[in-house]
Amino acid sequence: METRLKIKKLWFDDNKIFILTDDGKEFWQSLLWYHRLQDATNEQRNNYNISYSGIHWPDVDEDISFESFLYDDPEPSGISRLFLTHPELNASAIARQMGIQQSLLAAYIRGTKKPSPVRENEIKTAIRQIGKKLLEI
């Protein structure tokens, strides 16, 4: 389903992107979901185009759909937050080490799937094991 929000105002504050719609509703998302925008200059952030389905920043080649502003999780948490705040973690390698599909771990990271508490603990344990091996160097 395409969602068309009519944006009256767009701004960035405190590592978040906010929009105000023409009907007075305010929505936001964490920039942790959008590393290119997070790292962009103010000039790059202010150069955007609004299309039928979302917002595009040509200087950093980033797109955000209108629909994503309506998601239940504007701020990453759990496994998503862990991987998004530590980009040095290699999701493919961790998935291989755990014996799970990389696409499943990627879905956990994107927030499109939620791991069970047991699975989340398994992922954190795998990361801790990597940390222990690194400390032995």
Walk me through what this model shows:
With 137 residues, the protein is of the alpha+beta class. The model has no long low-confidence stretch (mean pLDDT 92). Helix 4 (91-98) packs across helix 5. Helices cover 38% and strands 20% of the residues. The chain has six helices and six strands. The protein is elongated, with a radius of gyration of 17 Å. Strand 2 (16-21) and strand 3 (26-30) form a beta hairpin. A three-stranded antiparallel β-sheet has the order 1-2-3, with no helix packed on it. Strands 4-5-6 form a three-stranded antiparallel β-sheet, with no helix packed on it. It has helices at 35-38, 42-45, 78-85, 91-98, 102-110, 117-135; strands at 7-13, 16-21, 26-30, 49-50, 54-57, 62-65. It has two domains: 7-70, NE0471 N-terminal domain-like (2-Layer Sandwich), CATH 3.30.2020; 78-135.
List the helices and strands and how they pair.
Elements: E1 7-13, E2 16-21, E3 26-30, H1 35-38, H2 42-45, E4 49-50, E5 54-57, E6 62-65, H3 78-85, H4 91-98, H5 102-110, H6 117-135
Antiparallel strand pairs: 1-2, 2-3, 4-5, 5-6
Helix pairs in contact: 4-5, 4-6
So what's the overall shape? elongated
Order of helices and strands: EEEHHEEEHHHH
Structural class: alpha+beta
Query: Counting H and I runs of at least 4 residues, what is the number of helices?
Result: 6
| Cα-based radius of gyration, to the nearest Å | 17 Å
Helix content: 25-40%
Ranges where pLDDT stays below 50 over 5 or more residues in a row are: none
CATH topology of the largest domain: NE0471 N-terminal domain-like
In terms of DSSP E residues, the strand content is 15-25%
Question: Could you name the CATH homologous superfamily of the largest domain?
Answer: Uncharacterised protein PF10387, DUF2442
Number of domains: 2
Largest pleated sheet: 3 strands, antiparallel
* CATH hierarchy, class of the largest domain: Alpha Beta
